[in-house]
Amino acid sequence: MKGVDVRGLEVLAALDGLPSLSAAARRLGVPVSTVSRRLRELEASVGTTLCERTTRRLTLTEPGRHLLAQVREPLAQLSTAVASVTGWSDEAPAGELRIAAAPTVARHLLPQVLPELVERAPQVRVHVSVGAEPVNLLSERIDVALRVGAPAKRHADLIARRLQRSRPVLVASPAYLERRGTPALASDLEDHERIGLSTIPTWELAGRTVAEAMEPRLRVPSADLAHLLCRRGAGLALLPTFLVADDLAKGVLVEVPGPGRASARDVYAVFSRSARRIPRVRLFLDLLGASTTTRAGRAERVPSGRKRLGR
């Protein structure tokens, strides 16, 4: 067996669960040609095919799955070790800051923080990936992940820092409520159009799971799209306070509290214990903390002029 390049192993890990080389290239932030070349070199080194490629899909072979199972944890440890010293300095932060964020959180938080970050740290390069699915920080070399809701599984090396408390609110456009009426009870929701999220199959209002048997006719992948549809009068939506606060203040949307209040879904920054000691990561976390502290009260307070429709 020839010497194995660790970059080939990183490609193998990136390919797991993805349908194509181009998807792995996007995950790694490199050209497709680089992914293809590193995979060929790895297969040549081990002397066997690790990945079956067709025009429709890509799957790991049995040797590929076996190799990945053996190297996944060492790769994560190596990534953590490298991250712990990359950009390590008593001087200005430097190196690449890799951020993964849920779409709504990226839209809400990153524009408040990244302009100041790039101004204060000219030696830092920023790579942002946006997606609804949770990421593996260690294997995907992510410095900080921004998520709504606490991570379901806790890793000993990971820290979840709460940035902001967000209580979803049930909202609708004034035109929709004028056309269809205002629900006063949770049971009334059955008679209304509901805009659901693919990632949240049920609504929890007043501590009870509602709409469980009420399949919404509109189910969309992101809160941003649900927000836009709600503004256009497509139905009721349960959306984060920070996303709809301005519309509530302007009367573009109206809160509908009758069916009950939703439980809070906090926004978290998740990062490894070693990453938080890196100057570029520490600066980003400090800016996030300052931004969310300033905005948190504004998002949770009832804005001036906000309309509420009750029973």
Structure explained in plain terms:
The chain folds into three domains: 6-85, Arc Repressor Mutant, subunit A (Orthogonal Bundle), CATH 1.10.10.10; 95-164 and 266-300, D-Maltodextrin-Binding Protein, domain 2 (3-Layer(aba) Sandwich); 169-255, D-Maltodextrin-Binding Protein, domain 2. Helix content is 40%, strand content 20%. It is built from nine helices and 14 strands. The strands form four sheets. Strands 4-3-5-14-6 form a five-stranded mixed β-sheet, with helices on one face. A five-stranded mixed β-sheet has the order 11-8-12-7-13. The protein has a two-stranded antiparallel ribbon with strand order 1-2. Helix 1 (6-15) packs across helix 3 and helix 5 crosses helix 9. The longest helix has 24 residues, at 62-85. The chain is globular, with a radius of gyration of 23 Å. Mean pLDDT is 82; it is low at 297-308.
The overall average pLDDT, rounded, is 82
What's the CATH H-level homologous superfamily of the largest domain?
Periplasmic binding protein-like II
CATH secondary-structure class of the largest domain: Alpha Beta
Widest sheet: strand order? Answer: 4-3-5-14-6
Low-confidence stretches: 297-308
* Share of helix, binned: 25-40%
The percent range for strand residues is 15-25%
Reported CATH architecture of the largest domain: 3-Layer(aba) Sandwich
Radius of gyration: 23 Å
Largest sheet: 5 strands, mixed
H-E string: HHHEEHEHEEEEHEEEEHEHEEH
**Per CATH, what is the topology of the largest domain?**
D-Maltodextrin-Binding Protein, domain 2
Distance between the termini: 74 Å
Number of helices: 9
